[in-house]
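Hey,

The postdoc asked me to send both predictions to you directly instead of through the lab channel. I've kept everything plain text so nothing gets mangled by the mail client. Protein one:
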Amino acid sequence: MKKYNVQIGIVLLVLLAAIFINPKELYYSFQAEKEIEIIRGIVEEIGDEEYKVKDIKHIGGNSYIVETNSDSLLIQSNKEGRASSYEIYVYGLTIERFMNK
């Protein structure tokens, strides 16, 4: 009986750990880090000093923002089977506010 209670306790501890650790989030984080390394190589292959990578941020899904010396790039990765393609956009954002008086 005592051995049975210990086994139930261990199972409950493992379930609690799985809830707090969130293995699905860890998996996606690991996949995003692999993609970031691939994207870093692609961007540095594009140009010389103009596209020296400063920072890469995963913004969700298959989209990444890459900060370089000169521009910000929006990169979207598309996977079809074993092939991957990357769409690269120069990303600029301007917000202006007009007030009527």
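Protein two:
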Amino acid sequence: MSDMSHPSSSPRSFYWDTESLVVVGLFTALSKVMSLMVALLGGGMNPFTLFLKNGIATALLVVLVARVRKFGVLALYVLVGQLISFLIAGGGMSILLPCFLLSALVSDALIAACGGYRRMGAVLAGVALYDLLGRAISLGYSLLHARENMAMVVVAGVFIALGYLGCIVIGLPCGAKFVKELRHAGIIREV
């Protein structure tokens, strides 16, 4: 008889451990709640609150990606975010979900190609690409639905550009600073 152990006797190792799943869920819910709070406290969707809420959401996304560090974290973020939006607002699932999943996978691939999840530059580039692709998809969808009224598409484009500016100006630098501080605190470990 051979000395090899039975394959079912060894513990299974899953790609997503419980801690990573909990972190993705918490950060996604926190991002949704913070965005809603900023919009409500700012008096609705004005340019300032749009700029600020997108910056906060991007900063939290940078921390999430730097903390979890697994390929597919952005895709999981999209799925959990869609589920949370469904539970909060009701209604059906977004028609754009496959497009957002594709943009998340492309952004994850960019992070992997730029040196991986341990490099802050790669994380920032991936999150910036994810935000850009998501906004481009939203604008394209608006263009399809309101092509008879181009003035509405232009207004939507201005709001989308302002939101992306908030991501670049506030979100990415603050997210990088948060990650640095969380590494010093030992919350994000260099394993």
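Summary for protein two, as requested: The two ends are 40 Å apart (CA to CA).

Thanks,
C.
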